[in-house]
Amino acid sequence: MSTLEECQRRIKQLEEELDAERQKSMTKGRNRISEMSSEVVDSNPYSRLMALKRMGIVDNYEKIREFSVAVVGVGGVGSVTAEMLTRCGIGKLLLFDYDKVELANMNRLFFQPHQAGLNKVEAAAKTLSFINPDVEFETYNYNITTIDNFTDFMERISHGSIDKKNPVNLVLSCVDNFEARMAINTACNELDQVWIESGVSENAVSGHIQVIIPGETACFACAPPLVVASNIDEKTLKREGVCAASLPTTMGIIAGFLVQTTLKYLLGFGNVTYYVGYNALQDFFPTMAMKPNPNCEDSYCRKKQEIFKEKLALKPKEIVKEEIDDTIVHEDNEWGICVVSETSPNEENEEAESVAGLAGGLKYAYTKPASNSTAGPVVGDTDESLDDLMAKMKAL
Q1: Residue 197: which H helix or E strand, with range?
Q2: Cα 135 to Cα 142: distance, rounded to the nearest angstrom
Q3: pLDDT of res. 385
Q4: pTM of the complete model
Q5: From 174, 188, 243, 296, the catalytic residue
Q6: What is the CA radius of gyration of the chain?
Q7: CB within 8 Å of 61: residues ≥ 6 apart
Q8: Whose CA is closest to 301, among 226, 352, 356, 355?
Q9: 3-class secondary structure, 252
């Protein structure tokens, strides 16, 4: 027997042994963790998470066991997203992908060289079940953009809850192409399903997440990228021998934003920001809110907009009375300290802008605005000596 054959035989033997151990671990885990405990002991995998409840951040962290989340695309962002949710104790994960693990993926997080050749969803589910056997997994190894698979995808979103009777609580888009994003957008608009879109740029130094609530916020078709709006075939854009760059750092950051927003949305703590961008070269994190396009090409999006308007019209108008404290604090203010707004007037009005401002907003997402005169005083040259300056400082 050759050395290669012996290695393959040994790998197969190890995988069988790992599968057997995994089954034992899953059975033991389910028996051990029937419910989340806040007991502070080293053997409790949820003690650090439950501390969020004890510290008043989350009212009921145990509720996370009731949620099911669909992760579409188990690549650089999706695999890390799935791992974070698994470690957080999510009740159920539905994983969608049709790619196989390749050695070229090893620059990213999560997957390992010995998994090369395996379907991503199967490899991911196997690894994740070792991390937390208390999480339920469903895997779907197919392309959601084909007609038959799209129908099944919608059915699984509609009945993907833990009881298999209700829709999933959230859909997370971690795909790397616009065709799949449009498929997810179409399904979620039709099913009235909240989802979060995510992406990393081809140069690997910027990315974003975007919360999409049908009818309330802009969907992916409301302000589509040029490649979608122009009906360009993505395949024609790819050049032979040229691939997109990818950094585990950028993908990990975007996955972190995605899961953090998921937890805030599901568990109801903090503020859910509709759009968060990231520019690694400038360490710039823009946020914004985009309203839906009344002329969106997606008919379900337009219908949901009308329904949302009707709901708003039925809500009673609240009169907010602001209490103004006229007490003067530190009237003398000998240090000359003043408080200034870090938000420009344009940024304050950004959320109120209509769809006409979307294109500019999308350009703004990854580019840090140039500093202007309101940013603060500029220190120029001086003829004074260092001793003179020190004397003035001491006098203050």
Answers
A1: strand 195-200
A2: 22
A3: 58
A4: 0.73
A5: 243
A6: 26
A7: 36, 49, 50, 52, 53, 267
A8: 355
A9: helix
Per the annotation, the verdict on 219 as an active-site residue is: no
At 137 the three-state DSSP class reads: strand
Place of tokens 């140039």: 370
Bridge partners, residue 72, by sequence: 96, 173
Name the pairing type of β-strands 275-279 and 287-288: antiparallel
Cα 56 to Cα 64: distance, rounded to the nearest angstrom: 16
Give the residue from 25, 117, 141, 123 showing the smallest Cα distance to 83. 123
Check: CB of residue 45 under 8 Å from CB of residue 133: no
The predicted-structure confidence for 44-98, as pLDDT tens digits, reads as follows 888 888 888 889 999 999 999 999 999 999 999 999 999 999 999 999 999 999 9
Q: How far are the Cα atoms of 109, 112, 140, 176, 258 from residue 211, in angstroms, in the given order?
A: 24, 31, 24, 17, 9
The pair phi, psi for residue 138, each rounded to 5°, is: -125, 135
Which amino acid is residue 209, in one-letter code?
Answer: I
> What pLDDT score was predicted for residue 169?
97
pLDDT of residue 227: 47
Is residue 198 packed enough to be buried (19+ CB in 10 Å), middle (13-18) or exposed (0-12)? Answer: buried
Distance, CA of 254 to CA of 267 (rounded, Å): 20
- Report which residue type is found at 171: V
Sole residue written with tokens 């040994």: 10
β-pairing, 275-279 vs 206-212, is: antiparallel
Which residues of the chain are under the pLDDT cut of 70? 1-5, 7-8, 12, 16-35, 38, 224-243, 318-396
pLDDT of amino acid 379: 39
Chain centroid to Cα 334, Å, comes to 46
Residue 273, phi then psi, degrees to nearest 5: -85, 130
- Whether 121 and 97 have beta carbons less than 8 Å apart is answered as yes
113: Cβ contacts below 8 Å, ≥ 6 apart? 103, 106
